[in-house]
Fold each of these.
Amino acid sequence: MDSYSLRAGADPGADAAVNAADLAARAAGVHVREVVELGELEAVHRLYDTIWRPDPSSPPVTSELLRALAKAGNYVTGAFDGPQLVGACVGFFRPPAEEAMHSHIAGVSAAAYGRSVGFALKLHQRAWAMTRGVSEIAWTFDPLVSRNAYFNLAKLAAGAPEYLTNFYGGVHDGINGDDDTDRLFVRWSLRTPEVVAACAGTVRPCDAESEQRRGAVVALACSDDGSPVPGVPDGDTLLVAVPPDIASLRAAEPERGRAWRTAVREVLTAAMADDLHIAGFDKSGWYVLKRDTTEGQHA
């Protein structure tokens, strides 16, 4: 199936987006395409079960739901290494119809880690959306997961304007455990120069050390033993640390994992309520938040 057939109202930048997606897929050694047949939809369901290891009563998706979403023209896509499904992404249109999408779930098999399959999936999703006139894709991610923060905010150059407390309730799967499901809400504006550059491989720069030399305040740090250490959340630029590997921490020391959840929640929600925005994420494990001091910006 040709995923990229231009539709009425297609974005003028769709051709370039398609080229970027094709390059990313080739670099990852996969073929990314829509999935519509029942057998392959069931394979997507099994892949997600393998990744998230959910409570049987609460799977992230079901084959029936995937079938309905695909039939209704939504985004259900797999990344294939030969015949093997190694990644998948699912999204649906949100109002106003076909001008924006919500990307509900994306995952990559452990067998394909380190190949940038997730990057290839997101660039395919962007190109697919732009051929249909969609200008923005939104999704959520756990703010404690450092690699996802870096992927979303640096590699994709997305923004994260909203903190959602315990958004999904208790899901009790192999990744979240019994922790609250706090999320950052991501908006990916598909046509901005930063996003175009990111899709061409230019990571959005963010250097916490440089920011600190310029006067940034550490609002939350990580101690030598891996615990959150509150700082002084008062300034026009704040640095907020997250643990290096929250998944391992939750498994080994769940109480410390919950302490990180509370600490990051308190600092980020307070800072964002005080008109600071998340400007980026340093791969070493720091959110950088900045106040927009442009006169009249918040009038």
Amino acid sequence: MPSANNAAIVEISQTANKFRSSIVLQYDNKYIDVKSILGLFTTLLSSSKYDLHVHGPDEAEAKIAMAEVFAKHDLGVNVVAD
């Protein structure tokens, strides 16, 4: 499977780091901290669908920003409403 491009991974991580909320990507039974570039490099694939979990004081804004950056790079993500 092709991995997502480096620019997408860096932008996703940088966007996540703007927020205080916990932002976690779920794929199968794996959970990856989106603020970790290394975690994204080893997990994020352009052909996969992910669930994004956001919890914290600025989660509404974080969910919007993260959905936008994933969409910008044509990466499938489902922002989970808890």
Amino acid sequence: MLNQTSPMSRQALLTEANKIIRNHEDFLHGMEATDVEQKGDVLVFRGEFFLDEDGLPTPKTTAVFNMFKHLAHVLSSQYHLQD
């Protein structure tokens, strides 16, 4: 799939991902992609997961996980990480 996608720098991918996050209907304050890596054909996004004081998931954790999954689906079909 890498041959069918356009190369994009890490910073440009993060900028695009955070634009998508901010404009998404499920956006929560503090939700942000802070890193991205290429795993095969998939872009994997990372950021704050909003764990509680015991390190356990909160309701926001599911929303963030779903957003990063959405980013992977949308952006992996268009771009690959430029080395």
Amino acid sequence: MLRTRQPIRLLGVDDVDDALDLCARDPAANVFVASRILDGGLGPGSTAAHGYFADGRLEAFVWSYANVVPVGTGPESWGPLAGQVRRMRRRSASFLGPREEVLGLWQETGSVFPRPRAMRTEQPLMATRTPPSRLGHAIDARVRPAHLHEVDLVLPAAEHMFTHEIGYRPYTGSSAFYRDSIWRLIRQGRTYVVIEGGRVIFKADIGSVALDTCQIQGVWLSPELRGRGLAAGFMASVVEQTMADHAPFVTLYVNDYNVAALATYERVGMRRAGTFATILF
């Protein structure tokens, strides 16, 4: 088709298979974008992604809906894609993804974005295909999927985690929209919790599922319980159940300065599969 000869263009329904093929080259790094595509993110009227084409073939693209996330990009595509990324500056809250790609795009576009609140350029991408029980790790039986009627128990834990991690609350005014996002994860069986004494003391979410891969996010342990050796058993159980319930390849990324979290993930069998970077506005 004539439109595919243009080096940069908006991606749509006809590009879904090619975009997913690009994501599948590195599913650990690209599961976030792949899951959004499978959820209809390239449907009619979408402006979520622009692709870089060479000889009529999709070689790379940038997802730029709320977050700027590069897929398969490199020096040859950063410059051509930069114009589209700059146009997204008013609706983008962050850049995130593989470090080299994020920093390459940032070099081309950063001058038009607000000054970052944080640049986290060393975030180990961790992954495993081995159930922790096979490695002899104890599984804490208290971890289970949250129930829909427990959404208001999960909300304070989710809010505390988000605020501590990002630096501001996840909502202003009414919590209705944020609560609904939590409700949807619970409905999909993608929030795991430990509830004791009528409150959540641990939680973890499966934020993305695609390409036989899933990404854990929002891991949180109540502050007064940290340092007691509970996290490894809880995480081992989350990984075990996630493999059984959602996908056999489990990933997450973590800040390099979070030494305790890194040790926990390594303890349950996760190993480094790459490096992410996140630039927060």
